[in-house]
Amino acid sequence: MSKNLSVTIAGVTMKNPVTVASGTFGSGMEYGEFVDLNRLGAVTTKGVANVPWEGNPTPRIAETKSGMLNAIGLQNPGLETFKSRDIPFLRQYDTRIIVNVCGRSKEDYVDAVEQLAQTPADLLEINISCPNVKHGGIAFGQDPKMAEEITAAVKRVAKQPIIMKLSPNVTDITEMARAVEAGGADAVSLINTITGMKIDINRRTFAVANKTGGLSGPAIKPVAVRMVYQVAQAIGLPIIGMGGISCAEDALEFIMAGATAVAVGTANFVNPNTTIEVIEGIERYMDKYGVQDIRELIGCVK
Questions:
Q1: ∠ CA 125-24-160 to the nearest 5 degrees?
Q2: Helices (H) and strands (E) in the chain, counts
Q3: Is residue 2 part of a domain?
């Protein structure tokens, strides 16, 4: 009897539960010669805004033990280029398209989501870790009221289901999850990067020009698994879990904690084939333990 690895998020079925984390895979063009994109459940694009963003000054990346810091600043060419270049590229493949959306104001998000309405994107992932320029730079995802408000605003104009990407840089992740659920989110993804800092002791300055950056990689996985579990107990929405996944065992932890799907991020920089190895590893696990349907594993640890 064949195994079923397919999962459904907000009415959209993925052939397997594995995608990539936004910002670690471009739109797949850079990885196409290494990875068969047809084998992925979905490709999640790098963040795109309604207008081009220049990003932060360099240096913008620093290695850390068991991870990396990045302060790219969501550099992107804007939606016009994205729609004419990236979407047609992804349409060549038999995989779902998840477009990550960023913005500096509620109006930015709404404009971007409206522009994406007529594209073949399957799902929209809304990055609410962006600084809200109209509220002193606090991230949308650090204030429950703002998170609910931006979710509701985007949901009103969206034609695709909305995934709200939650920031871990909060006191209570479940409060944020409940807020976006109240705003009408169709799903959530977590975690985004954890704010960190590294000092270059030889140059006696910050390792990245922005002073702080987002910490990702294996170092954050235990925190991410804990937060996915907490959110799974707090809300009724599907979850895409991410944060330090580098092998099938990591992915299965997230799934057993309550994630319907998982996203591989930093590991793509080390081994471009990580996503395929994760899919194959999940299949081997299911064979070993006689699991016929991946859904038997979702949230099985209570």
A1: 20
A2: 9, 16
A3: no
CATH number of the domain enclosing 97:
3.20.20.70
H or E element in which residue 239 lies: strand 239-242
Q: Which tokens sit at 173?
A: 């992740």
- DSSP annotation string for 61-113: EEEETTEEEE-----B--HHHIIIIIHHHHTTSSSEEEEEE--SSHHHHHHHH
Prediction pTM value: 0.96
> Smallest Cα–Cα separation from 176: which of 141, 226, 150?
141
Question: Coil, helix or strand for 133?
Answer: helix
CA distance linking residue 225 with residue 251, whole number of Å: 10
pLDDT digits (tens, 9 = 90+) for 154-166: 999 999 999 999 9
**Number of structural domains, the chain?**
1
Interatomic CA distance for residues 58 and 44, integer angstroms: 25
Q: Which of these is catalytic: 102, 130, 247, 300?
A: 130
CA distance 276 to 163: 24
Write out the two tokens for 91: 């349409």
Based on the residue annotation, tell me whether 130 is a catalytic residue of this protein.
yes
